[in-house]
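sorry for the late reply, my laptop died twice this morning and i had to redo everyting from scratch. anyway the thing you sent over, i finally got around to it. pasting the sequence first so we're on the same page, its 154 residues, then the predicted structure underneath. double check i copied it right bc i was rushing
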Amino acid sequence: MNNIGLKEDYTKVMEERLNAYLSSVQISYMNVRGYHWNIIGKQFFALHEKFEEIYNSLNEMADEIAERILMLEGKPLHSFSEYIKVSVIKERQNVNSAEDTVNALLEDTAKLLETEREILSLASDNDDEGTASLMSGFIGEQEKMIWMFNALLK
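ok and here's the structure:
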C-alpha cells in the first residue's frame, strides 16, 4: 500500500493512464490557445473570449491531474516531447474559422471525455475515490461543453 492506502501495482497503472491523459490535456490546451489567437470571422469576439475561458480551464485541469499523479506517488510528465508521444490528441495548426475551430474542439473534447470515462471506471474498480471524483467533475464539464458547442453549430 502507498501513503494514501492504494495498492502500488494499481497506482503504477493509474500513473501511466493519468500521464497519458495529462498529455492529451496539455496538447488540447495548446490547440485551444491557437484557436484563441487565430480565430477570424463574424464570431471572433464570442469565440475569442470562450477559447480563453476553455484554455484557462484546461490549464487548471492539467494542474489537478499532475497533483493527483503526485498523490499516487508517481511523477507527472512535464515536456511537450513526452506529451506528443502519449497523447490521443494531435497538434493542430492553421485552424482559424469558427466552424473549423469548433469542430476540432468538439473532436478533441470527445477524446478527453472517452479517456475520462476509462479512468473513472478503473479508479472505481480499485476504490480510488480521489481519482474517480476528479474524473467525475471533468466529465460533467466536458459533457456540458460538447452540448453547448453542438448547439452553436446547428
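The two ends are 51 Å apart (CA to CA).
thats about all i looked at so far, will dig more tmrw
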